[in-house]
C-alpha cells in the first residue's frame, strides 16, 4: 500500500482531508455545502485497473471539458502517511520519492502535493481554479486522491475521487466534496453551488465510465 499526503498551508480552507469523514453529509465543515455520490461502473480486475489508470491521468477533470493549464509536481519527497501492519500496529510515517509517471500526452500523473490550474465551464458554470493534490491512496483494491482549492475558484473546499474493487468483484466510483461559496452571488444563491456540483459529478462519472447515463 502507498499513501502519500502533502502538508502545506497554501490551501484556502482549514478542514483538510474532511472529504474522508464518514459523517461529512451530516456535519460538513463550517459554512460548506457537502455532496457525495457513488456509482457501480463494472466488475472485475481489468475494469478496476482501467478506471484507476484513467483516474490518475486526470480523466475526471479532462473529461469534464476542463483544461489543465499547468501541472506542477511537488518539489522533493512527499510524506508517506501512517500505515498499519498485519497486527493493526501503526507503522511510523516516512519520506519517500514517488516514481513520477506520465500519461500519453506527457502530463504528470496525479501525485501528492501536485498543483494544477484548471480552466473552463461545466454546464455553463465556471470551474476555474488552482488546486492541490492533498493526498493519494494506492491500495490493492482501492485507489484515489483528493483535491483542495488553493485559489481562483468561486468556491473553497475539497473533493475526493476513489475507485474501489470490492470483494464481490464489483467496481465502484465514489466522489465526495464540500464547497464553501466564495463569491457574492454564490453566497447569496447557494442553489447555484449545488447545481454546479451536480454538473461536475455527472461529468466526472461520464469521464470514468463513458457508457453510464446520469440523466444530468
Description:
The chain has 216 residues and is an alpha+beta fold. Helix content is 19%, strand content 38%. It is built from four helices and 14 strands. Strands 1, 2, 3, 4, 7, 8, 11, 12, 13 and 14 form a ten-stranded antiparallel sheet that branches. Strands 5-6 form a two-stranded antiparallel ribbon. Strands 9-10 form a two-stranded antiparallel sheet. β13 and β14 form a beta hairpin.
The whole-number mean of residue pLDDT values reads: 82
Radius of gyration: 17 Å
The succession of helices and strands, N to C, reads: EEHHEEEEEEEEEEEEHH
Q: Can you summarize the main beta sheet? A: 10 strands, antiparallel
Low-confidence stretches: 5-9, 78-85, 90-97
Determine the oligomeric state from the structure.
single chain
Q: What's the total number of strands?
A: 14
Structural class: alpha+beta
First-last Cα distance: 36 Å
Treating each run of at least 4 consecutive H or I residues as one helix, how many helices? 4
Molecular shape? globular
Q: Could you tell me the strand content as a percent range?
A: 35-45%
Helix content: 10-25%
What's the helix and strand layout?
Elements: E1 2-5, E2 33-43, H1 45-56, H2 59-63, E3 67-72, E4 78-80, E5 83-84, E6 90-91, E7 94-96, E8 115-119, E9 121-122, E10 125-126, E11 129-138, E12 142-151, E13 155-165, E14 170-181, H3 184-188, H4 190-208
Antiparallel strand pairs: 1-4, 1-11, 2-14, 3-8, 4-7, 5-6, 8-11, 9-10, 11-12, 12-13, 13-14
